[in-house]
Amino acid sequence: MTGGRQMMLTGERPMIASGTLLIPLQPPPRTVELTIDGETVQAPEGSTILDACRRQGKEIPTLCYLDTLHPVNVCRVCVVEVEGSRVLVPSCSRPVEAGMVVRTDSERVRHSRKLVLEFLASSVDLSTTPDVDRWIDDYGAHPERYGPPAPPMPAGLRDSLQPGHHAPPDPDYAATVIQPVKVDNELYVRDYGKCILCYKCVEACGKDWQNTYALTVAGRGFDARISTEFAVKLPESACVYCGNCIAVCPTGALMFKSERDHRDAGTWDESRQTVTSTICPYCGVGCNLELHVQDNEIVKVTSPLDHEITRGNLCIKGRFGWRYVQNRPPEARGDGRRTPEGRGS
Ligand code: SF4
Ligand code: SF4
Ligand code: FES
């Protein structure tokens, strides 16, 4: 073995005689062989069962999983059966192993996913959760069998519930988390009647990306909910309005106020929207922006999840700075509507 080869294996950066720096190459990932639904497949060591299934073109429903966040395994809608395992396993976090025998569509798996979907759909407003209606059909879920939804709670009641003090459920109704939407700022709204408690916003706001920790989980059991510190309004909380929580929310519980206003007015129409990619001009980081435009008006801004630097995250300027682009007099807008800042006719 040459000296250079030895150095590469020990992680040092060797120089060749001309002084050129050699960049050590990583060895190709090892693969493991497993069986998925009777088919033998190869998957990179360390990848998950979900990754392997997706590579095979198999759809596994997911709600709390996102490529850019650490898996938290809370929704359990992605479970699969692994031979030899006493319980169903969450495919979104369980790494593949050599010789594993996985079943993604067995009766046990389908029954479990059906129950998860029934519990969620009977207690949470999933009307803006993509794909969930199709999954409810596919798995034969009947959320209505738990009874009519309980009446919405008055504003603030859920925020005040104390661990160990919850009221017994009313047998005439399916318990729900439906409550008035929280509109306490001009940038985004929180509709916790749509919250499935997937923790994605908590992760994006906290340890995974933003490190602001403005959102956390309060309460226990069915009373558990996402909350600011002491349930204060967003402008009084630690929130810095990066909007990274909106970007990861799978149900629309967290939503741009612009989108919510359009939806409330019945004018939200994604078939009329275009998406233009550009670079944020506000600082030298140069984050990628995707401008969602409807009727010549920016209605929201996202950032691609697969960007290796920003991974879908932005700051307040990239996420909401576009509002100033539209701070135009009504005659320039051509529709006489008020600007987002409330000016205009
Ligand atoms: S608000 Fe959205 S992202 Fe946060 S826990 Fe609820 S559903 Fe998940
Ligand atoms: S989104 Fe924020 S960090 Fe990114 S380029 Fe714009 S101003 Fe800079
Ligand atoms: S998507 Fe796997 S547990 Fe939620």
Tally of contiguous helical segments: 9
The pLDDT mean sits at: 90
Strand content: 15-25%
Write down the overall geometry. Answer: globular
Structural account:
The structure is a single chain. The chain has 345 residues and is an alpha+beta fold. Helix content is 19%, strand content 15%. The chain contains nine helices and twelve strands. The strands form four sheets. It has a five-stranded mixed beta sheet, with helices on both faces. A three-stranded antiparallel beta sheet has the order 10-11-12. It is globular, with a radius of gyration of 24 Å. 31% of the residues are buried. It binds iron/sulfur cluster (2 copies) and FE2/S2 (inorganic) cluster. One iron/sulfur cluster binds next to helix 5.
Produce a short descriptive summary.
This protein is an alpha+beta fold and 345 residues long. It has nine helices and twelve strands. The strands form four sheets. Strands 2-1-5-3-4 form a five-stranded mixed sheet, sandwiched between helices. Strands 10-11-12 form a three-stranded antiparallel sheet.
